[in-house]
Amino acid sequence: MSEQFAEVIVDVPSMQTNQPYTYAIPTEWIGQVFPGMRVIVPFGKRKILGFTTKILSKRPGVSFKIKEIEEVLDLTPVLNTEMLEMASWLAKWTFSFKISCLQVMLPAAMRASYNKTIKLTSTDVSEEVKQLFDEQNEVKFDSKELSADVFKKLSKLSREKKAEVIYQVHDRARTKKVTVIKSLLNTQEVQKQKELLRVNADKLRLLLDFLGKIGSQILTQKDAIKKTGLSAAVFTQGEKKGWLKKEKVEKYRDPYRDAEIKRTKPKQLKAAQQKAVERIDHSIVQQQDKVFLLQGVTGSGKTEVYLYTIACALKNKQTALMLVPEISLTPQMVRRVKSRFGSNVAVLHSGLSEGEKYDEWRRIERNDATVVVGARSAVFAPLENIGIIIMDEEHETSYKQEDMPEYNARDVAIKRGSWHHCPVVLGSATPSLESRARAQKGVYEWLRLDERINGQPLPEVQLIDMRQELKRAPAVDISTPLLDAIKQRLEQKEQVVLMLNRRGYSSFIMCRECGFVLKCPNCDISLTLHMDSHSMKCHYCGHEEPIPRTCPSCQSKKIRYYGTGTEKVEQELQQLLPETKILRMDVDTTRRKGAHAKLLRQFGNKEADILLGTQMIAKGLDFPDVTLVGVLNADTSLSLPNFRSAERTFQLLTQVSGRAGRADKLGQVVIQTFNPKHYAIQLAKKQNYEKFFGIEMNMRHRGGYPPYFFTTQIVTSGPNEADVAKKMFEIDGQLKQVLSSQAVILGPTPKPIMRINNQFYYQLVIKYKKEPELDAFLEDLLLNSQKEARQKLKLKIDRDPIDFI
DNA sequence: AGCACGCCGACT
DNA sequence: GTCGGCGTGCTC
Question: Where does Zn(2+) 1 bind (predicted)?
Answer without folding.
Answer: 511, 514, 551, 554
